[in-house]
Amino acid sequence: MALSAVDETVHVRAPGKLNLFFEVGHPQGDGYHDVASVYQAVSLYEDVWATPADEFTVAVSGTADVSGVPLDDGNLALRAARALAAHIGYDGGVHLEIVKHVPVAGGMGGGSADAAAALVACDAVWGAGLGAAELQHLAARLGADVPFALMGGTAVGTGRGDRLSPALARARFDWVLVADDEGLSTPGVYRRLDELRAAPAPGVAAAPPVPGVDPVVLQALRAGDAAALAGGLRNDLQAAALDLHPRLREVFERGVAENGALAGIVSGSGPTVAFLTAGPERALELQVALAAAGATALHVHGPVRGAHIIG
Ligand code: ATP
Predict the structure, then answer these.
(1) What is the model's pTM?
(2) Of all protein residues, whose CA lies closest to atom 27 belonging to ligand 1?
């Protein structure tokens, strides 16, 4: 394929996500679960620089603990770059420099954001000029959360979470995130949910025949009503994440009961907990209070845009 690759480095930024609503169905024949998700992209970003090279290589650093991030073909951003090269018939390579801010294995889709950023960066650096639809198609093959990291904003995801439709959320929502030092494996959390559902207990939602989003959540997003959204937050994986990391219960206690967050929710498969607040001032107060109690607390807002070129 004739391409006009640029000599320079391309810098792309992609957001982490929260799941404001996450309903999980029964496991399917292929082991995956159908879900109904409401995603929101938030202002905690991954930065990826792509430079044309002969080989495919990656370097990773960041404010998040990056010791668990693979530097070989297990790295989702490298897999994204290779997938794009194969798709366009490009026989060169790329060096990716990733600076991570999204907690690793934290339920905020950091690896997926890296993959989305790599797709956009390689598309530009190799002069491929693929449109949004083609990039979305490649993204869906890389992982369930990659299409949303490309799209950003607020969206409903069905299927494995990768069939997206944008949701209207004009207002800004302020969140305080509490990260945990020890990540959770996404497949492990799904497995634990299946086990918990096999012997139903209070707090464990039964699998719905067909997962669907509660209209209350979409209405609250449209209206920009944080209090109403707080009442509609739901994550079926939360019971499993709490079972695997019981200390998260104290985090909830501290955020909601002791410090007045409107509500808290485990994001995705956890263990990051996101507290919804009534606005920027309340979020700042909550962040300070949680940090004083020894937590790693970050104030972010959403929705923000998906993977995009900087500069
Ligand atoms: P999910 O998208 O399932 O919610 P997560 O946010 O919990 O994922 P990630 O940080 O995206 O977790 O990554 C989960 C695992 O994927 C890591 O433990 C790591 O082994 C692997 N991984 C592969 N590529 C990357 C990457 N670029 N950044 C972080 N982890 C990666």
Answers:
(1) 0.94
(2) 111
